[in-house]
Amino acid sequence: MTTTTTTRSHPAAPGTPADPGERGRLTVGDAAVERIAAHAATEVDGVGGSAYRLLGVAVGPEQAGADVRVGATVTGDAVALDVRLSVVYPMPVRRTADRVRAHLALRIRDLTGLTVTRVDVTVTALHHAARPEGRVW
């Protein structure tokens, strides 16, 4: 029995999917990974945002509801992350940072196909769990 295979040397006809090798390449930019990682970090219990900083000094109040700050460097199919966040007291800081690292590696891989090679976590503040605001009479 003889098997014949054909290779397509021209673009696929409209409505016909191209072979995976002919479809092109997807590039995910640093800014896109930063946004995905910032959102994914807030999916971990006990994680809040970080205030903007200028020369290491917080500009504005540290608020648990602020955005998590993420810097990303994408090189090929690998990404390194620098994450700045706050932790809700009394959550264990080291364990929370470890959970953030693992969660970010999983979510970035699932959503972008990139491999996370490093996640540096800086905890900028501790916050108390949300308390009801008192009234002043």
TrEMBL record:
<protein>
    <recommendedName>
        <fullName>Asp23/Gls24 family envelope stress response protein</fullName>
    </recommendedName>
</protein>
<dbReference type="InterPro" id="IPR005531">
    <property type="entry name" value="Asp23"/>
</dbReference>
<dbReference type="Pfam" id="PF03780">
    <property type="entry name" value="Asp23"/>
</dbReference>
<feature type="region of interest" description="Disordered">
    <location>
        <begin position="1"/>
        <end position="25"/>
    </location>
</feature>
<comment type="similarity">
    <text>Belongs to the asp23 family.</text>
</comment>
